Amino acid sequence: MGRELGKQLLDLAQRAQESALLLEAHHELWANLSALGEFTSAWTHLEQGFALYDPQKHKHHALLYGGHDPGVCCGYHAAIVLWLLGYPDRALQRSQEALALARELSHPYSTTHALFWAAWLHHYRGDEEVVQARVEEGMTLATEQGFPRWVGRGTVMRGWFLVEQGQKEAGIMQMLEGMAVRRATAAAVRDETYYAVLLGEAYMKAGQSVEGLNTVTGAIAKASRTQSRTYEAELYRIKGELFLRQATTDEEQAERCFQQAIDVARFQQAKSWELRAAMSLSRLWYEQGRKAEARQLLEEIYGWFTEGFETADLKAARALLEELS
User: Fold this and answer.
1) For the chain, where do the domains classified as CATH 1.25.40.10 start and end?
2) Could you read off the pLDDT of 128-187 as tens digits, one per residue?
3) Which CATH class is domain 188-325?
4) CA-CA distance, 290 to 98, in Å (whole number)?
5) Which of 16, 52, 195, 290 is the most exposed place for a label (fewest CB within 10 A)?
């Protein structure tokens, strides 16, 4: 539905040849297509957004369309899409530009968006200190300005920090509280699946594989019903990891999940998700004595990357390749 409405908006804007309407039509499409997992198509509209956006001409759009600035939105969505497509350094640059623009505009809601999506990017790059700084600044702003959607997200992230620090039970409880706040504000399905990724990992670290499997299985089903596929590959990967951590390990089911994660990631051209899933499957194959297959799988995806070699995932992949040598 969102894609079709976006196409209708774009058609109307093209007929009118009005840059402001064209910008908002592309705005609608880059947001919806990225949520649908159509990352390369989303990037096409993001490029159009960068070409059209003028902060002087379009700064009033935050008051008319969606409550946030389209230039800021274009920047942080570009960061999300670029990371997913396998360009971590270019993603970082776009994220920094989006946050700088939001601060320059002094628009609180746009700044809150930019801060929390910057936290998202740094989370996946493995920059934990920066994640915490962005979350705390975003949480302060969201609380002061009365943005319950982002207070809920900040609460989830604070719970995630507790889990990372070893306070697993307290962290999970706080994550669940934050998710309840977000549901009360009609959270987007993409947000819910992101929280399922975080919560599934938290349950895994807490040794609660049944709860983790229930969480990610429900999220996969919901993503399928709603076509919200941003995190589909990662949900399958985590599901596979949880099968390996049950009281009775199920390697067959785990391998099936890892392969499904790789298949989804390849279909979406989501190289960063593919790398993560390939590492999980390579580790399993290595433990099964299938060392040559494990190395071949991981070498192929690792060799694709041209940047971001200081990020956590690429460091881990390089270390695993050395172990497989």
Assistant:
1) 188-325
2) 999 999 999 999 999 999 999 999 999 999 999 999 999 999 999 999 999 998 888 765
3) mainly alpha
4) 45
5) 16
